[in-house]
Amino acid sequence: MEALVEQVRVLAKNGDETVRKSILDSLQSLRNSIETPDDTVQRFTFYNLQLAALRVGVDLKLFNFFADTEEPLTVVELSEKTKADKIFLGRILRYLASFGAIKETNKDTFTSTNITRTFSSSSFQAAICHYFDTMGPSIQKLPEFLKENHYKDPENSANTALQKAFNTDQPAFFWLQTQPEKMGFFQEYLTTNRTGRPTFLDVYPFLERATGLSPERVLFVDVGGGFGQQAIAFREKYPQLEGRVIVQDLAPTLAHALKHPKVGTSEQDFFQPQTIKGAKFYYLRNIFHDWPDDKAKIILKNTVDALADDSLILIDDMVLPNVGVHWQAAQLDILMMTTLAARERTQDQWYQLLENAGLKVNSITTYTSSLKDSILEVVPI
Ligand SMILES: C[S@@+](CC[C@H](N)C(=O)[O-])C[C@H]1O[C@@H](n2cnc3c(N)ncnc32)[C@H](O)[C@@H]1O
Prior knowledge:
Blueprint: H1 2-14, H2 17-34, H3 37-45, H4 47-59, H5 62-67, E1 73-74, H6 75-82, H7 86-98, E2 103-106, E3 109-111, H8 114-118, H9 122-148, H10 161-166, H11 172-176, H12 180-192, H13 206-209, E4 218-222, H14 229-237, E5 244-249, H15 251-254, E6 263-267, E7 281-285, H16 293-304, E8 312-320, H17 327-340, E9 345-346, H18 347-356, E10 359-366, E11 373-380
Parallel strand pairs: 4-5, 4-7, 5-6, 7-8, 8-9
Antiparallel strand pairs: 1-3, 2-3, 8-11, 10-11
Bound molecules: S-adenosylmethionine.
């Protein structure tokens, strides 16, 4: 058995991302196929308890204490560091070890695993807090919300399970701005979300497409660009391309934008007419998946109205296959439904949305294997 596990480990280590993902998927279907009904029930019904235990681990900084040393730590040592009760701590550590978040090496003694190291990073801790504090209560309300709404596909961003969970009538992004701690977790998580994965810069042929530039013309507008990571990465990859690079977003988000000497910022509500006219590239990453089709069409129209003849709209979002969506993509789609009445769109749904907005797709280039993150180059019909 050990030898077999080692063989699979080596295969995953030596394979590329597609091989590694396909091994993970095979392991999942292997587990599903050999579970008894009891195993299955124990596994599915305790998922939210795992996240709660990780949340406690973050609060007590357990993952940081483990990551700070190569040596195993005892319950007594951790009790001194955290000021938590020894008996309680022993129980929570045992539970965290039971699903691999840490490893038990001896009686009342634990050490780190690769999962501990992942959760010692502040942005992944922020992910735990975001998914537990904001998404958790919303997910809990999803079945009741759907039942009350007669299982209609949610379309109103001010009426989702999130509003029900937090007793608000504001859409998630506006509501989040009134919740500094939750907003902080979300923003911190976003800053490194997708770190290490390929990006649009690895696949889109900017040098080939960047014609008609001049120092006066805006080169690249990152619409709803958040803190500006993509715009900065673009500017740094292509310093030779003439023209300004600008990040647009709402003022509260821009207040946290990263500073870069060659990237400007400009306040823009994308539901209002686009104020930067005739730029070469209008780039929108992870914007449309936040909004239902009627809202997405307004954003598209505001962008189209600002285009010059040779401008290009670049949409960076997931393009799901019409059949055989990976579980990681499918779960994100349901999350979008839960908090934003939004969706991850299939290829057919993208074509439909864009055609309805008077646009045609020049190309779709997919750059991640399971989520199918893709860059769509789009122009008016
Ligand atoms: C999912 S984030 C994507 C951010 C960035 N494009 C990225 O990929 O990292 C959505 C962004 O849309 C911004 N946003 C939400 N409503 C907006 C509006 N009405 N006008 C402009 N930006 C908005 C949010 O502040 C947030 O930065």
